[in-house]
Amino acid sequence: MNTFTLVFLAALALTTGLRVWLALRQIRYVSQHRDSVPAAFADSISLEQHRKAADYTVAKSRFSLLQIALEVVLVLGFTLAGGVDWLARFWGAHVGQGLLGNVALIASVIVLSGVAELPLDLYRKFRLEQRFGFNTMTVRQFLKDMVMQFALGAILGLPLLFAVLWIIASAGAYWWLYAWLLWVGFNLTILAIYPNFIAPLFNKFEPLPDGELKQRIAQLLHKCGFAAQGLFVMDGSKRSRHGNAYFTGFGKSKRIVLFDTLIKHLQSSEIEAVLAHELGHFHHRHVLKRMVWVFGMSLLFLWVLNLLMTSPWFFAGLHVGQMSAGAGFVLFFLVLPVFTLPLQPLSSVYSRKHEFEADRYAAEYAEAGNLISALIKLYRDNAATLTPDALHSLFYDSHPNAQQRVARLAAYVHN
């Protein structure tokens, strides 16, 4: 057996075991604390609401075990079971070994993966989310979104894929650098056009009506020195009862978007505090830092891919008989999560640091007490557990847990 095959199998077993262990820890810990509301939340979240959050978290964690199992089946099916090799031979025989054949191979793996994941997507939306009262999406809306996403992926993704594969074939030894520059330009373009051209394909955006909330936000933006293209309300309720708010775009295309569900459940002062938190991300340039991080990692990954493209042991170890750019791309992105899982805690710690910094900014430009009350309502309304397992949270959570976050904000109130 190829040495890399053994390395790959060992890494897959270790990462899968770790993910399952963390999920089981989360299930056990949350279940053990289901019947006791943490003291800091006892006056604002009832035992019934706390139990609902625990049950929702446990249900999602159990569902994640199904997702892990499917991912393992797909990775092994496409690699050691010969899926990619068969597809490469099939497309090679029908459309040739060139650019078109490589694009067809990559596209077919994406489509087959999407089809395999569809039953779990349907279960998550129409059983799990429905069970806890969050889903408002109809089957018709689900299918419409799926078709739109597929069409948008084809319109935007296929030209990019053709361009990258053409660069690989014609740009020589430094193709990975030119492909990275194209990737960066593509992402910045999408970021710029998303607010005005892509997001409206899926949701309606109405200008925030005049009133106390709009006046509060305008004053906050002036105080923070932040310019936005506009304030918009999005019809998030047509898909889910979860509430949210976000900033999108950059430069002159920046806009603030509030879910209609958020406006329904929070007071104006609380929404102001939530937006002050989001403004904190811009003040500390978290968006830029994360972009630099993502672009830096993508450059590293493309450089590694460049090395693997000319390594027969890589293809042989994953049971692909013929080396090609298309097969190399597919194999690399199939096995990449297996070897990069140890980076997950680093990314989570970095993200939580940013959240604390944004909370501190919100406490300076709004009121920490209003942010606390807003967060508690969001935890309650979104059924977010107040008692996550510490290791699971350390590994996965991009936001500090509720008790840590509220305690730190409470210190700002007293100061």
Describe the protein's architecture and organization.
Helix 3 crosses helix 4. 73% of the residues lie in helices and 4% in strands. The chain has two domains: 1-134 and 308-415, no CATH class; 203-265, 2-Layer Sandwich (Zincin-like). The protein has 16 helices and four strands. The protein starts with a helix and ends with a helix. A four-stranded mixed sheet has the order 1-2-4-3. The chain has 415 residues and is mainly α. The chain has helices at residues 3-32, 47-78, 83-95, 99-131, 139-170, 175-198, 212-224, 260-265, 268-283, 286-309, 312-317, 325-340, 344-365, 368-381, 390-396, 402-414, and strands at 205-207, 231-234, 245-248, 255-259. Strand 3 (245-248) and strand 4 form a beta hairpin.
Shape descriptor reads: globular
**Assembly form of the protein:** single chain
Question: Would you report the number of β strands?
Answer: 4
Please give the order of strands in the largest beta sheet.
1-2-4-3
Task: Give me the Rg, rounded.
Answer: 24 Å
Q: Overall mean pLDDT score?
A: 93
Number of helices: 16
Helix fraction, binned, reads: over 70%
Tally of distinct domains: 2
- Encode the helix/strand succession as letters: HHHHHHEHEEEHHHHHHHHH
Structural class: mainly alpha
